[in-house]
Amino acid sequence: MHRSRRLASSLHDLRHAAAHLPDAIVLLDRHQRVRWFNHAAESLLGLRRPHDRGVFLQARLHGTELADWLQGGAAEPLSDVSAPGQPSRHINLTLLPFGHQQRLLLARDISHLTRLEQIRRDFVANVSHELRTPLTVIHGYLELLDPEDVPALAPVLGEMRTQSKRMGQIVEDLLTLSRLETQDRVVDERVPMAPLLATLRKEAEALSQGRHRVTLDDRAHVDLLGSPKDLHSALSNLVSNAVRYTPTDGTIAIRWELAPDGSAIYSVSDTGFGIPADHLSRLTERFYRVSSSRSRESGGTGLGLSIVKHVLNLHQAQLEIRSTPGQGSTFACRFGHARVLPAEEPESGPLEP
Ligand code: ADP
Fold first, then answer.
1. Predicted pLDDT of residue 99
2. What is the pLDDT of residues 208-249, one digit of tens each?
3. How far, in whole angstroms, is CA 250 from its chain's centroid?
4. Cβ < 6 A, ligand 1 pocket
5. Which pLDDT does position 72 carry in this prediction?
6. Tell me: the pLDDT tens digits for 89-116?
7. CA 128 from centroid of its chain's CA atoms
8. 147 close to 153: Cβ distance less than 8 angstroms
9. Which ligand 1 atom sits nearest the alpha carbon of residue 274?
10. Which pLDDT belongs to residue 346?
11. Phi, psi at residue 2, to the nearest 5°?
């Protein structure tokens, strides 16, 4: 008697605790029908007591991203979606196996986190924007000063020019990143790859100034679907890194090839300094550098690979990095076949008489 009262009391406490958790909990039977849900599930998912007990959850949430996710099997958690019927409320969802073929749907309100993230993004964009004009003015005046007029100050002037140019580049890169972060899709235009690859090669040669051997191997002969400007910026960042992190006499190989599954791979390999394995996973973070001095000396802003990652994400493409310290690195961008277009035949000119 005493034991069963204790058990009943524990059960009551547990139910009470679960009912008042700030995260939404929905218990689903093996047919995805709602068996039980807590208070937070009412406010976050819009479920109503008592008539939502026993309903088929997917049908109940019909027309929302959640229903599509449930229908697709919900194997992976769903991040940052609008709560049903509340567009400004953001939630994360997870579906966990529970008991005998039952499932537990967990939803967490992340609106405050997304708001903080938005404030951070706006702050970076505003600061960068505010710095742009004063920097342009300083840079303009520095360009006007002729070192020959003040020979004693020539080295100082040179350093000031270099640094103001660097600051300008950081501001431009931060603005590019802010723009990419607020975009969730790109304009889909044909990006003719043959001329783009030729331009990338020329850019590498100009930056290298004869210090490296630059090769281009276009085996794919296909074009891409996406934003020409953003893709140029991302692909050229990889070329510029290869040149900047490869000592004189090294080789930079640009390749464009098709994989057996129909995806297209753009890669840049170098015979440069390479990157130790423990840094690889962090390279695309803003301002992450393996060696700060090497990055600064070579004119880096520490933002190049973040830009590359954002551009690739917008094109549903992946960045793969392989590197051996002391031997070199390969940065490869893999574009899914939905982004690959057969190259257009070059327009034939008028026939010679
Ligand atoms: P940065 O402007 O410093 O080059 P990136 O975001 O382009 O910034 O790159 C981040 C860091 O990754 C660099 O500072 C450098 O340490 C490393 N890195 C990038 N590309 C290469 C490469 N091809 N070879 C060796 N290290 C590289």
1. 85
2. 999 999 999 999 999 999 999 999 999 999 999 999 999 999
3. 30
4. 237, 241-242, 245, 270, 272-273, 275, 283, 288-291, 295, 300-305, 329
5. 92
6. 999 999 999 888 999 999 999 999 999 9
7. 20
8. yes
9. 25
10. 66
11. -60, -40
Return phi, psi of residue 294, to 5°. -65, -40
Taking only the tens place, the pLDDT of each residue in 10-52 is 989 988 888 889 999 999 999 999 999 999 999 999 999 988 9
Closest-lying ligand 1 atom to the alpha carbon of residue 331: 23
Flag whether pLDDT at 351 surpasses 60: no
- DSSP letter for each residue of 261-278: TS-EEEEEEE-SS---HH
The protein residue whose alpha carbon is closest to atom 19 in ligand 1 is 241
pTM listed for this prediction: 0.82
CA-wise closest residue to 229 among 270, 162, 183: 183
**Counting every residue, how long is the chain?**
353
The preferred substitution site among 283, 291, 330 for testing ligand 1, maximizing ligand atoms within 8 Å of CB, is 283
Going from the Cα of 159 to the center of ligand 1, the distance in angstroms, rounded, reads 23
Strands of 318-324's sheet in order across: 213-218, 251-258, 264-270, 328-335, 318-324
